[in-house]
């Protein structure tokens, strides 16, 4: 497997700036995230406080970030990272679509507003999963409930119908779910908690409960504590020093994931610092 020098997880301003700085410093960069960059850029109506870009819409900013990446010949590997494992002298990164390796990793995943359901963490790997692509094979001929926090999760639910016998889909967003007719959509059903019941799992909802062999919770952000085992977190934010170093050697974090203020320029600035610290780390371990 190819080992990249620096892997960057997240394609918001923090991750993009980290990627650009690492590339300027001639490092091999793996940029993992989404080709739409960040919904927090896309959805901004008018931005007035980004240096050099007075009164810019989110859409225009998104296009100009994309142009910058193209000019630097930086490609985005479209994937969602599930877990980062510190292996000593390198990191193994498990994405929904594959495994990756890198000598240093920069977390730029944005703020996690994710609140776990009671019973979710206790049953993770025991009927609860965060990744349909990774775990679908466990549900051959079985039933699954999918809780999708954005429209793109509909594709994951549809993928599950190729394997599972019965798939229920709970859209946690405003738009109408457009999925194939093998899926039973339960719009408006509000999940409250998860309980283990014999070999099955029960999703307790506001209107009752749903029983299935598996429950897939597909959120945009994985909580940092779930993303990297052993990472020091305080109030759901990654603890870093001024060099954006975390408690794990070779692992850096930048942007909203490190805490307030939640601002584009702060995220981009921290991305720059994180990349320079990663470059120094690589030089030091050589
Ligand atoms: C509507 C709106 C308007 C705003 N207006 C302003 C403004 O005018 N001025 C200002 O300074 N700030 C503004 N902000 C705040 C600003 O958007 C954020 O501070 C900034 O986007 C943070 O950048 P980031 O790179 O840290 O995270 P994000 O922009 O959140 O990017 C993180 C990226 O990582 C991806 N990701 C997350 N988890 C994973 C994973 N496990 N694997 C792969 N990828 C992952 C996400 O999908 C996302 O693309 C606004 C925010 C919103 C929502």
What does this structure look like?
The protein is 24% helix and 29% strand. By secondary structure, it is an alpha/beta fold. It has two domains: 3-113 and 222-285, FAD/NAD(P)-binding domain; 128-218, 3-Layer(bba) Sandwich (FAD/NAD(P)-binding domain), CATH 3.50.50.60. Helix 1 (13-24) links the parallel strand 1 (3-9) and strand 2 (29-33). Helix 1 (13-24) runs parallel beside helix 7 (264-285). It is globular. The structure holds flavin-adenine dinucleotide. Flavin-adenine dinucleotide binds at residues 9-15, 32-34, 38, 40, 43-44, 47, 49, 80-81, 108-110, 220-222, 255-256, 262-265, 267.
Keywords:
alpha/beta, 7 helices, 29% strand, 24% helix, 286 residues, 17 strands, single chain, seven-stranded mixed beta sheet, 2 domains, FAD/NAD(P)-binding domain, binds flavin-adenine dinucleotide
